[in-house]
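Morning F.,

Quick status update on the modeling queue. The single chain you submitted on Monday has been processed. Sequence for confirmation:
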Amino acid sequence: MTTLKECPFCGEKEVTTTQGIKGINAHYVIVCSFCGAVTSFEGNMSKVACTKAWNRRGRAAWHEWRRGNEEEVKGR
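Structure tokens below.
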């Protein structure tokens, strides 16, 4: 099983995958335990496919967020 990368927004390593239900469709949700960022994947994507999709994103969002939140990042 592929491991989830850290949150691209705050750098938190504790990121979890859970399965939710929207209507009659099951989908996966990835949640950051620190900043609360949520990404959901609907359709017939497997948990592995969702993990790979989460890991594929760039780090630009993290660097953008970090620039405006230096004090919060230092306090972690």
